[in-house]
Automatic annotation (TrEMBL):
Protein name: DUF4270 domain-containing protein
InterPro entries tied to this protein: DUF4270
Domain of life where this protein originates: Bacteria
Pfam family, one: DUF4270
Amino acid sequence: MILLKRFRSIPAVILMVLAFISCDDDFHSIGGELVGGQIDALPKYDAGVVAYSKKLPPVQTNNLPLHLLGVYNGPVYGSHTANVLTQLSLPSGNPSFGNRPRLDSVVLTLPYFSTRLEADEQGNNVYRLDSVYGNSPIKLTVSRTNYFINDFDPDANFENRQRYYSDKGAVFENSIIGDPLYENDSFVPSTAEVSFREPNQTGVLDTVTVAPRLRVHLPLEFFQENIIDREGSTELFNNNNFRNFIRGLYFKAEPINDDGTMMLLNFRDSNAGIILYYTNTIEEEGEEDVLEENSFKLNFGPNLINTYSQELSPQIEAGIQASNEETGGERLYLKGGQGSMAVIDLFDEEELEELRSRDWLINEANLTFYVDQATVQGGSTESENIYLYDLTTNQPLSDFYSGRDQSGNLIRNPIHAPVLERDEDANGIFYKIRITSHIREILEGNTDNVKLGLVVTQNTGLINPAALRTPVGPVSQVPIGSVLTPRGTILHGNLSSNEDKRLKFNIYYTDISN
């Protein structure tokens, strides 16, 4: 284990023994093995911690690997709407559609994240949709937009990548032109497999069955006029011309009742896009003309932008405003998307200097955040994960990784931040985040005692930062995993009136001064 400063007075032989012990993987992981795995049997120090909430301004959403689409009505934070603007791209420039092409159908496809379960009694495949929040109908429309998405920022002399933020929905909607290409007043994603006929490599139609997805037909006239009939035109010569011509599509979700459905989607999936099915004519001398089945695919992207719309309730706004950067808050409000988060301050300078003077081995350090069960209804609506990160570097703490594999790739530490601990009724009790390595480094003076950010997250692996349009106190960026979840929670803060549920910062140690 890491030793504190005073250990320099210990004889060299003892230090070598202690250094050897510190290299033991089992001991280093959590330190509990010293006492038969019971870390609670070790001496515990309750360290000082201050935590307060911050409401987030618009967040950058044109750097996301996935995108939210739909309406989510959470039990704590209310309704959250997410829409998507996407460019369209040609698979290659200057396409040829053959002789006398005739457009037969146009199909938009967006696969859902799903898991195949055991087949039913009839042998049919059964699927569960993943990353879908809610199961009530919404209104879904897909329209052409005249909004041009820049790759580079004209205000920075086109030297920096352009950033787009989550509050651009009204601007995009004002740029919609023409009638919707698709409109469904009662849309709900289906768990059923999708079957359709598609030409194979020899041009013969085969029946294809695939996992659940949004698969809908679009009007022929639009694509006949703007794609097929423009063969050989400058608009289809390359993707720069094409994106300037078509601009993009806007996927808009609207609530139709007090509930809704929101989906996490991969618009860049190889199966996502718009496929034009058409026939062309092959003329052979002395023979009857032959109709050949063909297809042409338009891809989504490369630029996509999520837009969010949400209003926090007056009660939650007041709770966030009541937080104090000096003393902390009674509650911590964590909400994904363009939501809210918490800032964590560990120790103060006086306490830190006192701890550095002690002859302690740090066996484990952790933060325990208790769910405010009086306001959070629990069950499946609660976020499984929260994520703690360094607000100075916007990177994870050293405890996030446990080492490297044989290829040199970093390995995530599963005990750093386990999923939400629940009771027998599936209601959330607490999140415990182990920050042992981080605290050792602070006490040894190897790292600064920086402010930490705490967010809910859709996936603890999505740690790349997304910029805020305007920094809020020490917060300038949030992890992408937080941007991609509509969920939220409320936790007891360091000033909670329930002392048993207050935020706890515990350090387990071995005193070797005797």
